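S1.2 Input.
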Amino acid sequence: MNFKRILVAINHSPLTSIVFDRALNLAQQEQANLMILHCLVDFTAIDQGSSQVGPLDSIRSTLGFLHQSARKHFS
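S1.3 Output.
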């Protein structure tokens, strides 16, 4: 194969680590750029006073996951 760019979609499911690891390994093998897509859920209910987790919490959680994964692969 000859990939130049690889797009991987992640979320907070149990498979996220596996999917991310495989995409990263493929990107390294192919010397390709890895682009990461993380979609947030609709937070309309939060704006209306719901007690669900807010988008900032989700972003922080995702950044924590990405930092942890980067340390694992590049340390």
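S1.4 Remarks. The beta strands are 5-10, 33-38.
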